[in-house]
Amino acid sequence: MATTPLIEAENLAVKYPEGDLALFDVTFSIDSTTFMAIIGPNGSGKTTLLKAMLGLLKPTDGFIRVLGFDAKREYKMIRKMVRYVPQRDQIKATVPMKVKDIVLMGRLLKKPPLRVASGKDVQIAKDALRRVDLENLWNHPFPELSGGQRQRVLVARALATEGQIMMLDEPLSGADHDSQVLIVEALQEYYNENQVNIIMVTHDLNPIHTLVKDVLMLNRTVMGIGHPCAVMDLELLRQVYGPSAKIVELAGHKYCITGDSGFDHHDH
Ligand SMILES: Nc1ncnc2c1ncn2[C@@H]1O[C@H](COP(=O)(O)OP(=O)(O)O)[C@@H](O)[C@H]1O
Ligand SMILES: [Mg+2]
């Protein structure tokens, strides 16, 4: 039986008004249900692709559909289904809110006005915070948290929100190692327990390559797609990241070393 793909793009091109083509000739299809990673160097169009899925950027050519809905025309339906965690630099860390307000916001925004949190909302929000090991910071001011804690709160907000697709743009960037591990484990646990799709943009596949089902490698167009092992190919990595890219094997797992992502790479 044919099922509707999670994401289907055909000849998709996206151009910023003030720029060159950020994406061109993007054609791929990914089946539901999946935990998928979108990888590629800086500027390869990863964020642009997520925004195209959400209808925040319109295709200059081709189309992209999310569970059958056209992102250009039917973006309202898509946004109802999606819980989106934007890239860190797009969120102000100074918002004078408490952790609980941030986590509850995802649920409240999907309700009609006069948005009041019910007992169930609070319970779900607390459970989401527990998954990232921050339930004790429920009443804590958000701006006082470390970068890694803030990322964990934003992931908790996505976990607490309704919608069958989770889109996270570089949720590990700017997070300390322990926070990275907590985020990855929380997403994995949530994915295993719930029939949700997770689409995670990352410039470093290493922390998640043993968990994800599909990988899309971008460099303004599709460079590779498939099982993580299929894109962990030396030829392909060097083509995308340059000649110094390497693959090493440790304890039965392959790891990529690229200019963008090394073993001890942190964003600060
Ligand atoms: N608002 C914008 N205006 C013009 N060009 C942009 C804008 N945002 C991104 N770009 C360009 O589009 C390309 C892809 O960007 P982006 O999708 O953010 O890449 P990534 O998320 O993979 O780092 C880059 O060359 C970037 O400079
Ligand atoms: Mg980006």
Mind explaining what this structure looks like?
The chain is α/β, with parallel strands linked by helices and 268 residues long. It has one domain (28-59, 66-257): P-loop containing nucleotide triphosphate hydrolases (Rossmann fold), CATH 3.40.50. The protein has eight helices and twelve strands. The protein has a six-stranded mixed beta sheet, sandwiched between helices. β9 and β10 (222-226) form a beta hairpin. The radius of gyration is 18 Å and the shape is globular. The relative contact order is 0.16. Residues 261-268 have low confidence and may be disordered. It binds adenosine-5'-diphosphate and magnesium ion (MG).
Strand content: 15-25%
CATH architectural group: 3-Layer(aba) Sandwich
Largest sheet properties: 6 strands, mixed
CATH topology: Rossmann fold
What is the helix/strand order? EEEHEEHEHHHEHEEEHHEE
Mean pLDDT over all positions: 90
Bound molecules: adenosine-5'-diphosphate, magnesium ion
Sequence-ordered SSE layout with sheet pairings:
Elements: E1 7-15, E2 21-30, E3 35-39, H1 46-53, E4 61-66, E5 69-70, H2 75-81, E6 82-85, H3 99-108, H4 119-131, H5 147-160, E7 165-169, H6 177-193, E8 197-201, E9 214-218, E10 222-226, H7 228-231, H8 234-241, E11 246-250, E12 253-257
Parallel strand pairs: 3-8, 3-9, 6-7, 7-8
Antiparallel strand pairs: 1-2, 1-4, 4-5, 9-10, 11-12
This protein binds adenosine-5'-diphosphate and magnesium ion (MG).
